């Protein structure tokens, strides 16, 4: 199993099923089981899928901490280049703390939730939510690009120079504690919009300078 963990960085498409029973565990408050994974490095994009709660912490030390209610609960963590994919289909949502130096993108789907612990100071950020996913993001950025659809819910706090927003009628957005010098709303409906195509379009946006993020 230790060999499998070491392979995570060397082979970026390697998937590892993290279970508290497969590693040394210890009891936490509420009977939770905990596992630390510190071999994944260089990630700045987070994708959460299924029934999982991801808490992001900006830190100079990269680390991943997985907490599950039951020892047999499984969480899938997969690193694809700079992207960290976290998913779980368990009845009880797994709680995953991700410590990272920089954050470029958040993607969440299913019943996943993503939240930031503390204020993230970033040059730019992209947030994509679909299905019943939720995100609570506290950040100070030069620009932020958000796409929310279906029954997803985004809560923004902090400030930005520019906010580019694409939202359908059923999605919820709370910006009561978020200050933007400039907000650009898109009236494009989601009836015929491909979510992945919208994601690719954002990468080429002239107002959201992706080339600065890839450095």
TrEMBL record:
UniProt keyword S-adenosyl-L-methionine present: no
Keyword Disulfide bond: no
Family annotation (Gene3D superfamilies): 2.160.20.120
Residue ranges constituting the Putative auto-transporter adhesin head GIN domain according to the UniProt record: 43-196
Alphabetized InterPro entries for the sequence: DUF2807
Signal peptide: 1-22
Keywords of the record: Signal
Top-level division of the source organism's lineage: Bacteria
Protein name: Putative auto-transporter adhesin head GIN domain-containing protein
């Amino acid at each position: 199993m230790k060999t499998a963990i070491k392979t995570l960085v060397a082979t970026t498409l390697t998937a590892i099923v993290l279970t508290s029973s497969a590693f040394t565990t210890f009891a936490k408050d509420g009977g939770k089981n905990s596992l630390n994974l510190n071999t994944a490095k260089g990630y700045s994009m987070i994708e959460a899928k299924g029934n999982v709660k991801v808490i992001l912490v900006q830190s100079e030390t990269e680390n991943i901490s997985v907490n599950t209610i039951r020892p047999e609960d499984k969480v899938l963590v997969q690193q694809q280049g700079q992207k960290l994919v976290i998913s779980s289909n368990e009845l009880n949502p797994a709680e995953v703390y991700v410590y990272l130096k920089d954050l470029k993108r958040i993607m969440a789907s299913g019943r996943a939730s993503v939240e930031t612990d503390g204020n993230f100071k970033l040059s730019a950020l992209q947030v994509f939510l679909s299905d019943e996913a939720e995100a609570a993001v506290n950040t100070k950025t030069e620009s932020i690009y958000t796409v929310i659809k279906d029954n997803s819910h985004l809560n923004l706090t902090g400030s930005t120079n520019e906010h580019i927003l694409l939202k359908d009628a059923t999605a919820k957005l709370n910006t009561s504690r978020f200050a933007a010098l400039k907000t650009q709303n898109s009236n494009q409906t989601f009836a015929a919009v491909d979510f992945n195509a919208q994601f690719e379009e954002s990468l080429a946006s002239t107002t959201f300078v992706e080339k600065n993020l890839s450095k």
